[in-house]
Amino acid sequence: MATAAEHAINAPLAPGSGSPGIYRHRLATRLWHWSNVVVLIIMLMSGLMIFNAHPRLYWGEYGANSDYAWLEIGPTATGGHLVVAGLDIPTTGILGQWTDANGNQQTRAFPYWATIPSGYNLAGARRWHLSFAWAFAILTIGYLIISAANRHIRRDLLPKKSELAPAHLWQDVKDHLRLRFHPTDGTAHYNILQKLTYGLVLFVLLPGVLLTGLTMSPAFNAAWPWMLDLFGGRQSARSLHFICAAGLVGFILVHLLLVMLAGPINEIRSMITGWLHVRKVEEGSA
Amino acid sequence: MMIARRKLVGSLGVAAGGLLLSGCDRVAGTPAFRSFVEGTDGLTIDFTRLVSKRDALAREYTLTDLSPVFRANGTRVPAAPEYQSLMANKFADFRLRIDGLVRQPLSLSLAQLRSLPVRTQITRHDCVEGWSAIGQWTGTPLSGLMKQAGLMPSARFIVFHCADDYGASKYYESIDLIDAFHPQTILAWGLNGQRLPIQNGAPLRLRVERQLGYKHAKYVMRIEAVASLAQIGAGKGGYWEDSNDYAWYAGI
């Protein structure tokens, strides 16, 4: 056990330092993580192309061009804009009006570099999205089952009562702002902000995006009509699908930033080999 | 050292992104991708059929749920001369033909169709693009017509031949017998208590409520029972399936 006298410097070790590592990520977690890198990016990018076919979002059961859209992306007379809840945000060059790889001006919502396929193709995007949805569903459900069985959820992800105390949460926020991400006791437990974020992703965003996706299917609506009630109608499900996907994009961006800040070599290596190198510093040397 | 590493990781990310972008479009054209896509498509049909009862009903709504405006999409007025002359006469000369693998081919006027058992349903129309509209449809159940015509045992699909030239060829669609005999599958001639408007498919349009909008053929002129879709159009079972590779099964 580490004592309070021991302090750790959070900068990760250079590789090959020979310090004993900590086994942090099980094989199931690593396989799932790297499969998700591929599958989730394909789902997100093909999803943006599907959105391009009708770049408006509604609440309730129905919603088409003459109905009120709470979010809309499109061209204006002079550029592109995003209108969300009445707020008109100019997005010329990125959303609603942009220049494609051949130098032609386009007025679709999301630009070619963010979509699969890169040129407008709803049928193609649906092929990608609905095929990889199988991989996505199997990965998500499979990982949840395995993580419950191998106690990953209970042991690593479930916050302890003491961690949820406001003082502890605030301490962790301060640690993050000081770029101190690893525990100071020589272990490699997830910190509380990490647990809450992973919990949000694993138990809210991923199941949410899966279920709201199925709720957009007229066949599944007939099979499981309760899903329409759960999400407040098909167009609400479509909006929530987009919001969950946006949440996942936000997670990925913050996740990549924090991996960079925490030391990308050590972090990425630990996600490949499972082993995280943590340097414990003798008293007084910190 | 650290900065160099960050640059390295960053540029690897950019390179991977570029590879992904150009790669995905290229991958989509390969036979392996094609078989993957068709395999999962089959899986989707099987799974949908596994979890839903054969006659599981699409949700039916109430009059207060109707879309204020029911959006029309695709062809608004078919340009074909035959259709134009039918339209000029308010479809009094219209005859729905039912033929193919049936024992008793039929030719029915609108008045004859309306004299058959009627079904009215308020359902949600989901376009493949993503929008939805709720409308009240009144029409003749397809199952009754199929029984009247008497399907031969070899019939496996029902093809709907339409009046509209969409692009270079005539619009058509097809469904299997599960959907053909589903209680909500009707040939609608009324929308929201009125005669079906031209822009929504007058005089007859298919409603196949557990699938997306492009399956709901408008301007239906002829219904053909077939054993295989291979000989119809380009063989994929529908106009959009042939021309743009939309999936034949549009339950999702």
Automatic annotation (TrEMBL), chain A:
<feature type="transmembrane region" description="Helical">
    <location>
        <begin position="198"/>
        <end position="220"/>
    </location>
</feature>
<keyword id="KW-0472">Membrane</keyword>
<feature type="transmembrane region" description="Helical">
    <location>
        <begin position="31"/>
        <end position="51"/>
    </location>
</feature>
<protein>
    <submittedName>
        <fullName>DUF4405 domain-containing protein</fullName>
    </submittedName>
</protein>
<feature type="transmembrane region" description="Helical">
    <location>
        <begin position="128"/>
        <end position="146"/>
    </location>
</feature>
<dbReference type="GO" id="GO:0005886">
    <property type="term" value="C:plasma membrane"/>
</dbReference>
<keyword id="KW-1133">Transmembrane helix</keyword>
<dbReference type="GO" id="GO:0022904">
    <property type="term" value="P:respiratory electron transport chain"/>
</dbReference>
<feature type="transmembrane region" description="Helical">
    <location>
        <begin position="240"/>
        <end position="262"/>
    </location>
</feature>
<keyword id="KW-1003">Cell membrane</keyword>
<dbReference type="InterPro" id="IPR016174">
    <property type="entry name" value="Di-haem_cyt_TM"/>
</dbReference>
<dbReference type="InterPro" id="IPR051542">
    <property type="entry name" value="Hydrogenase_cytochrome"/>
</dbReference>
<dbReference type="InterPro" id="IPR011577">
    <property type="entry name" value="Cyt_b561_bac/Ni-Hgenase"/>
</dbReference>
<dbReference type="Pfam" id="PF01292">
    <property type="entry name" value="Ni_hydr_CYTB"/>
</dbReference>
<feature type="domain" description="Cytochrome b561 bacterial/Ni-hydrogenase">
    <location>
        <begin position="24"/>
        <end position="274"/>
    </location>
</feature>
<dbReference type="GO" id="GO:0020037">
    <property type="term" value="F:heme binding"/>
</dbReference>
<dbReference type="GO" id="GO:0009055">
    <property type="term" value="F:electron transfer activity"/>
</dbReference>
<keyword id="KW-0812">Transmembrane</keyword>
From TrEMBL, chain B:
<dbReference type="InterPro" id="IPR000572">
    <property type="entry name" value="OxRdtase_Mopterin-bd_dom"/>
</dbReference>
<protein>
    <submittedName>
        <fullName>Molybdopterin-dependent oxidoreductase</fullName>
    </submittedName>
</protein>
<feature type="domain" description="Oxidoreductase molybdopterin-binding">
    <location>
        <begin position="91"/>
        <end position="226"/>
    </location>
</feature>
<dbReference type="InterPro" id="IPR036374">
    <property type="entry name" value="OxRdtase_Mopterin-bd_sf"/>
</dbReference>
<dbReference type="Pfam" id="PF00174">
    <property type="entry name" value="Oxidored_molyb"/>
</dbReference>
